[in-house]
Amino acid sequence: MQAAYLTLGFSHKLLPLDTREKLVFEPEALLEFLARFRQEHPSVHEIMALCTCNRVEFYLYTHAPDQIAPPLLKALAHTKQVDLKALQTSLEFHTQEHAIHHVFCVVSSLDSLVVGETQITGQFKEAFKLCLQAGLCAKHLSRLAHFALKCAAGVRNATAISSQAVSIASVAVKQAAEILQTEIAPKRAMVVGMGEMGQLVCKHLLAKGFEVALYNRNTQRALDFAKSLDNPNLQVQPLSALAQGINAYAFLFCATSAPYSVISTTMVQPCTFRRWWFDLAVPRDIEPPQEPNIWLYSVDDLQGVVARNLEQRQKDTRHAYQVVGRFSVQFAQWLQSLEVDPLIKDLRELAKQAALKELRRAIKKGYLPQEHEECVARILHNAFNTFLHHPSATLKKNAHKPESDMLGECLKSLFNLGKESMFINRYKCEFSEEGF
Predict the structure, then answer these.
(1) What one-character DSSP code corresponds to residue 93?
(2) 331 within 8 A of 152, measured Cβ to Cβ
(3) 337 and 399 in contact (C-beta within 8 Å)?
């Protein structure tokens, strides 16, 4: 079967948070899982994975795009002890042109919970880098990744979608700011964890005028981060003071990479004031509190705020899809042009072997002296190069045009080159700008 791009995975659209968080991998465990799966399935030439709060997706280049999903789901369900049927019913599956378009949409943040957030582009870049360094990606996924990042930049440059959109972190901070419009509470907040999400929360809180206390396991790293911001409203606290802090602040934002809850119900004490907690981690950092004066928001709970933003950005989103469509077509055309050179090379090799075969036969039958073989071979080489010049030039000239499909397939059929079809002109019909 012809090799093709394949994407399969799970996102906030179909898979609930409590199941998504079970699928999260630590980097080393993820690389081990991917390497083992590729070793067990030789049809998988290249593989990478993207794991975020809102999605776990696998991107592959494989000779068995129609057969590889069941064993991958089975391996994932076994590794993570997740119900296989739940994964099967929530699976998003795309091949070749649809896979390319899906990846471009994901990296351009058109498939995100918060459309237009820029965090996903960096996450994809890091995921690709991780898998590339591990030898899991080669030229095919590299081509896809580089073009996807180029597409994301094109969307940002052509639209205002990123400037108008917000990340999950800023959505949470916006929600806190809206709470203060109707509730009387100090404009003070604590942030637990200083990964990318935690740092974004700190920046957004400071921009909104909050006093922020940052709790992190590595105190020195937190101090270095606070120094880089040079804002007196950001103070660093040791993680040992966490239990005291959660009972002193009205606003709590938690976003660590811990595989377990860092805030348990046993740490919570009754307070006379209301508290609003935002758990921005997957797996979740906060055990559901029993105190009636605590309102807990998870990643999925922020979708209402996101929906209002989506309505405001509808026009830019439509334009962004047009940009993604153009890049998808360009990538398809580029892939198609890559197939022209091997076709020309095969055609020339066929002519060369035919000429040499007849030359050797002529010498064997005595039609030509042996000492003239080299000179005649050179003449024949020049002759078939001259003969094939115009067909070669025509193929290259029309590589991006619809007729290239017909020309290429006719040549392969006429000269019995025996190659599978790699021409994908139909892609343009589905994802060109006119389709949106």
Answers:
(1) E
(2) no
(3) yes
Q: How far apart are CA 323 and CA 315, in angstroms?
A: 13
* Beta-strand pair 92-95/4-11: antiparallel
Determine if the pTM surpasses 0.85. Answer: no
Looking at the fold, whether 221 and 152 belong to one and the same domain comes out as no
Per the DSSP assignment, residues forming a β-bridge with 47 are 60
Residue 123 and residue 108 share a domain: yes
pLDDT by residue (tens digit) across 279-337?
A: 998 888 999 998 989 999 988 887 666 666 667 677 788 888 888 988 988 888 777 76
CATH of the domain at 291: 3.40.50.720
CB 168 within 8 A of CB 53: yes
- Nearest Cα neighbor of 11 from 108, 106, 152, 96 is 106
Per DSSP bridges, beta strands 188-192 and 211-216 are: parallel
Total domains present in the chain: 2
In a shared domain, residues 149 and 77: yes
Domain region containing 9: 4-165
Q: Residues with Cβ < 8 Å from 259, sequence gap 6 or more?
A: 24, 26, 283
Burial zone of 21 (CB within 10 Å; 0-12 exposed, 13-18 middle, 19+ buried) = middle
> Strand locations in 4-82, DSSP E?
4-11, 44-51, 55-62
If asked whether residues 38 and 83 sit together in one domain, one would say: yes
d(CA 191, CA 197): 10
Cβ proximity of 66 and 1 under 8 Å: yes
12, 137: one domain: yes
Same domain, residue pair 101 and 193? no
DSSP for 136-185 reads: ---HHHHHHHHHHHHHHHHHHHH-SHHHH---HHHHHHHHHHHHHTTS--
Q: What is the pLDDT of residues 35-72, one digit of tens each?
A: 999 999 999 999 999 998 888 999 999 998 889 999 99
11 and 128 within one domain: yes
Task: Write out the catalytic residue numbers.
Answer: 53
Instruction: Tell me which residue of 127, 136, 132 sits closest to 45, measured CA to CA.
Output: 136
Q: Which of 109, 136, 165 is the last residue of a domain?
A: 165
Joined together, the tokens standing for residue 94 give 């795309």
- Shared domain for 160 and 175, answered yes or no, is no
Asked if residue 30 belongs to a domain, the reply is: yes
d(CA 430, CA 415): 31
